[in-house]
């Protein structure tokens, strides 16, 4: 049953991804993108990952969509230029080739939810069996995030701080260089 | 048949991933490129989380009523990846705003024409 819901949601996800690719109005694209993130967080619930679903719903659906809308509002240009009849063959071929190779690669992955898969045998098994005993936290995701792999979270905070500083430096520069429009006529 | 049902989840995720990659490479509009990159990234995250799923298991919160739990490790790693992904997306949008201020355009081919490189 849960597999059926999973595949159904994934089908919807594929349709929305194609819609994001094809739509020319960028405001509508931002809305579709929010819907895409919401569907992904629904999929995380089906895959037994409520913590990831919370994060995706708050950060992916909320902040990402708001950032996209704010950018579009400050650019005052919400339409993509159209190039009719131009299907780019190189990227299409590359995507199809890479997709085929990845599908070939899944041949060695165990079926979805297979208990004998290597993922469930190694360190994950230890976390599930001893996690609460060793850290005293019933939520194993929190236990691993804050206790076993605390340094990962420290690294994450460093990346977020760096990105925030870079955004501030980019947007609050007092003297902003402009490219002259005459350069357009150059070959 | 059993093989196909067990792997269909991965194949669909790979399809979404490739739609994201194609959007990233083929569209000239910079915002569209960032959206494509985000779709690619989200599907990779989805792939990892689906690897941690366990048949008959439940969410990894210990309770005396349950014995089988999904693997918490991929979930923790992807939790970090989501937050880092949004930080890099914000940086990408800030760069687009600056490019638009400098060039007056956010279309890749127009920007290349002003720079005199490529078409």
TrEMBL record, chain A:
It is a multi-pass membrane protein. InterPro entries: CPA3_Na-H_Antiporter_A (IPR050616), MrpA_C/MbhD (IPR025383), MrpA_C/MbhE (IPR046806), Nuo/plastoQ_OxRdtase_6_NuoJ (IPR042106). Gene3D superfamilies: NADH-ubiquinone/plastoquinone oxidoreductase chain 6, subunit NuoJ (1.20.120.1200). GO terms for cellular component: plasma membrane. Its main location: membrane. It comes from the Bacteria. It holds the Pfam family MbhD. The chain crosses the membrane at residues 6-23, 30-47, 53-75, 87-106, 153-171. Keywords: Cell membrane, Membrane, Transmembrane, Transmembrane helix, Transport. It is found in: Cell membrane. Residues 117-177 form the MrpA C-terminal/MbhE domain. Residues 12-76 form the MrpA C-terminal/MbhD domain. This is DUF4040 domain-containing protein.
Automatic annotation (TrEMBL), chain B:
It is found in: Cell membrane. Pfam families: Oxidored_q2. Keywords: Cell membrane, Membrane, Transmembrane, Transmembrane helix. The chain crosses the membrane at residues 6-25, 37-56, 76-97. Its main location: membrane. It is a multi-pass membrane protein. The keyword Transmembrane applies. One of its GO terms (cellular component) is plasma membrane. It comes from the Bacteria. Belongs to the CPA3 antiporters (TC 2.A.63) subunit C family. PANTHER family: ANTIPORTER SUBUNIT MNHC2-RELATED (PTHR34583). This is Na+/H+ antiporter subunit C. It comes from Alteromonas aestuariivivens.
């Amino acid at each position: 049953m849960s597999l059926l819901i999973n595949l159904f949601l994934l089908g919807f996800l594929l349709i929305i991804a194609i819609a994001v690719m094809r739509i020319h109005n960028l405001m509508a694209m931002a809305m579709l993108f929010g819907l895409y993130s919401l569907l992904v967080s629904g999929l995380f619930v089906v895959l037994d990952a409520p913590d990831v679903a919370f994060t995706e719903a708050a950060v992916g659906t909320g902040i990402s969509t708001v950032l996209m809308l704010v950018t579009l509002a400050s650019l005052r240009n919400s339409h993509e230029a159209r190039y009719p009849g131009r299907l780019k063959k190189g990227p299409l071929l590359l995507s199809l080739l890479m997709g085929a190779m990845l599908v070939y690669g899944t041949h060695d992955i165990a079926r979805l939810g297979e208990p004998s898969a290597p993922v469930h045998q190694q360190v994950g098994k230890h976390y599930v069996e001893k996690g609460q005993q060793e850290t005293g936290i019933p939520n194993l995701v929190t236990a691993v995030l804050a206790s076993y792999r605390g340094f990962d979270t420290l690294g994450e905070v460093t990346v977020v701080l760096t990105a925030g500083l870079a955004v501030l430096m980019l947007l609050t520069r007092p003297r902003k260089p402009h490219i002259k429009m005459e350069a357009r006529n150059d070959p | 048949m059993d093989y196909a049902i067990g792997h269909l989840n991965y194949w669909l995720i790979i399809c979404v991933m490739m739609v994201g990659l194609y959007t990233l490479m083929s569209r000239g509009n910079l915002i569209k490129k960032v959206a494509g990159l985000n779709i690619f990234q989200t599907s990779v995250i989805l792939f990892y989380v689906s690897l941690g799923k366990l048949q008959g298991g439940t969410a990894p919160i210990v309770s005396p009523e349950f014995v089988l739990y999904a693997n918490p490790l991929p979930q923790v790693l992807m939790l970090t990846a989501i937050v880092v992904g949004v930080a890099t997306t914000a940086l990408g949008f800030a760069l687009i705003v600056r490019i638009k201020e400098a060039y007056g355009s956010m279309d890749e081919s127009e920007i290349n024409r002003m720079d005199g490189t490529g078409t």
